[in-house]
Design a protein that fits this description.
With 594 residues, this protein is mostly helical. Helix content is 61%, strand content 5%. It is built from 36 helices and 7 strands. Strands 2-1-3-4-5 form a 5-stranded parallel sheet, with helices on both faces. A two-stranded antiparallel sheet has the order 6-7. It is elongated, with a radius of gyration of 29 Å.
Length: 594
């Protein structure tokens, strides 16, 4: 019992071995032996030797599996496992090396058993390690925790929600493994914790954060109204100011991960901006970068800021809206120049580029090639497509290889500027990647001579959000390696037959323009007053081709008949001759006099 003796008992006197021997032999002393281990595990420096050197976990698992074990010994065994699981150093090995989950589940489900709280608490601590998530989902921990989420016991309720919250926190950590996320959705976790967002003071914010982490990246109807989004932003402000929230000291990355997940979605990005998330995100960078602190907290803030900036397609609109940003560009430059090439540093480079006064207008060189933009998880499909196109005779650059964030940004601009065609490998991972979105944005809005073609590299993927708006109805299948030769041949025919080179530029078919490119055409024709209306109604090039007379254009919202006539003349010209984005006004002059 005495704290000052616990370390010596383990390190100097080796008491753990005899205690384990006593437990293995059984008998009446098993209760006292388990109790002694429980108290010894309170000492932090005892946790590693007890776990790794003595194998305490394996012996205690055997205790839990023995039907003849006294109830008091079961309580102390679960309590000891709970103490060992508190240490971050042991969590992944406990789950990896021992069959511990099922016996813990068994005692977690026995209502009013004195070991229930400790068994569930052990699962809670083990869920804090992201490496354990997939195994938890497969072993049924999600179902057990959700079944206990409305327990009359506040302790059981909090620990159950804590398990779901921890699993949801890391559900997006591994883009190629959606086991945890799929299980949370299959078990209807969001619907089952909805009541906790309202009824129980103190854990309502945990339920809100958990919901945000599960549904944040979705593009479906929102279960999170504005006041819940505002709660998450307020939590970020409180933690940044080191205030206590609901009696707990929260790590800063908890609200930041939720905000990072929410800001990926078009549904929530605008809500976050409306409740004032910009300023606290900038304050995170100020607090950390002024002290030269670089960790996941800064990474999350930088990536969230880049996604937030995509509310504004044009850099001029972004700079006009983000007026009170202080020294953000300077901090981003400092962060970008760290010796690293991870996603966050690259995102800092792109955001700095968008906010700086440097022009992003791209000037292509004489060198022409095909550039393939892909998410890291789709590298196999992208590489195979590049191989097939190279065999046909094209010069292909697949992705960007750079040794620093600054070099990555510069090479991206050059690769897209010099590309005749940019092939986007569409997938959920691509849609959720801030870097991929910037590559698509640059190709669409700043490389006016570059054609963007989409291939889908994830089977059953249905484009959503910004990626669905960037895509036309024409795309190519590329999720199966066996498809690649045929897909490459179809792409080659598409490029050769439908897009003839004209003065080093590519003429575009009107029917192939997406919604954003139609907006650029309207601006070139000085009809940009209709741009927002066309975008809201998803009017793309294929829709314009179907407009046979002025009345069709009036039905799309072109209120003035002279404007309808002007647009109809341009449509007829573009149908026959194609158009070069960036030179629409010249085509319009021709159309007006034809």
């Amino acid at each position: 019992h005495e704290p000052e003796h616990r370390a010596d008992l383990v390190s100097r006197y080796g008491v753990v071995g005899p205690l384990l021997l006593t437990i293995k032999e059984g008998g009446q002393d098993i209760v006292l032996a388990c109790a002694a281990l429980h108290f010894l595990a309170f000492e932090e420096q005892n946790v590693a030797p007890m776990t790794f050197s003595y194998g305490v976990v394996g012996v205690l698992v055997d205790v839990l599996n023995d039907h003849n074990t006294p109830s008091a010994a079961l309580v102390y065994a679960c309590a000891c496992l709970n103490s060992l699981a508190i240490s971050p150093k042991t969590r992944s090995s406990i789950v990896r090396d021992y069959q511990i989950i099922r016996p813990l589940i068994k005692f977690s489900q026995i209502l009013e058993h004195p070991a229930q709280v400790y068994a569930l608490g052990t699962l809670h601590w083990l869920s804090h390690d992201s490496k354990n998530g997939a195994k938890f989902a497969k072993e049924g921990v999600v179902s057990v925790a959700l079944n206990l989420i409305n327990s009359p016991s506040a302790k059981i309720r909090e620990q159950s929600l804590g398990i779901i919250a921890s699993l949801a926190l890391y559900a997006h950590s591994f883009p190629t493994d959606k086991t945890v996320l799929n299980e949370l959705r299959h078990q209807r976790a969001v619907q089952r914790i909805q009541s906790l967002m309202q009824n129980y003071h103190g854990i309502s914010i945990v339920a809100t954060i958990t919901t945000a982490n599960i549904v944040g990246r979705d593009e479906v109807a929102s279960p999170l109204p504005n006041f819940h989004i505002a709660e998450i932003v307020q939590l970020l402000v409180c933690v940044l100011n080191q205030d206590r929230v609901a009696g707990l000291m929260w790590p800063l990355r908890v609200p930041l991960i939720a905000i990072r997940n929410l800001v990926v979605s078009d549904l929530y990005r605008g809500q976050l901006a409306a409740v004032g998330v910009l300023k606290p995100l900038i304050n995170v960078l100020k607090c950390y970068l002024e002290k030269s602190l670089y960790d996941d907290t800064v990474h999350l803030a930088v990536v969230s800021l880049l996604e937030l900036s995509m509310l504004y397609e044009k850099e001029s609109e972004l700079k006009a809206s983000w007026l009170d940003i202080g020294d953000l560009v300077k901090w981003l430059d400092k962060y970008k120049r760290q010796e690293a090439e991870d996603d966050a540093h690259i995102c800092a480079g792109f955001l700095q580029l968008r906010l700086s006064n440097k022009s992003m207008a791209l000037s292509p060189s004489e060198s022409k090639h095909i550039f393939i933009s892909h998410a890291p998880s789709d590298v196999t499909a992208a590489t195979e497509l590049a191989t097939q196109l190279t065999a046909i005779g094209y010069v292909v650059q697949c992705g960007i290889q750079a040794d620093s964030a600054a070099a990555f940004v510069d090479q991206t601009l050059t690769a897209i500027a010099d590309a005749v065609v940019v092939i986007v490998c569409a997938s959920l991972a691509y849609k959720e990647s801030s870097i991929c979105r910037m590559q698509s944005h640059i190709a669409t809005h700043h490389a006016k001579t570059t054609k963007v073609i989409h291939v889908i590299v994830e089977e059953h993927y249905r484009p959503s959000g910004w990626l669905s708006r960037a895509m036309t109805s024409l795309w190519y299948p590329a999720w199966d390696i066996a498809q690649m030769p045929l897909t490459a041949q179809s792409l080659a025919k598409h490029i050769q037959d439908q897009y003839a080179k004209t003065g080093g530029k590519m003429r575009r078919l009107l029917s192939d323009l997406n919604v954003e490119e139609v907006t650029a055409v309207l601006e070139g024709l000085r009809l940009d007053k209709y741009a927002q209306l066309f975008a809201e109604n998803c009017v793309d090039g294929a829709t314009l081709v179907e407009c046979k007379d002025e009345e069709d254009l009036v039905s799309l919202g072109v209120a003035l008949k002279p404007h309808a006539r002007k647009l109809l003349r341009a449509i007829r010209t573009y149908e026959k001759e194609g158009l070069i984005l960036g030179s629409v006004s010249d085509v319009d002059d021709t159309a007006s006099t034809s």
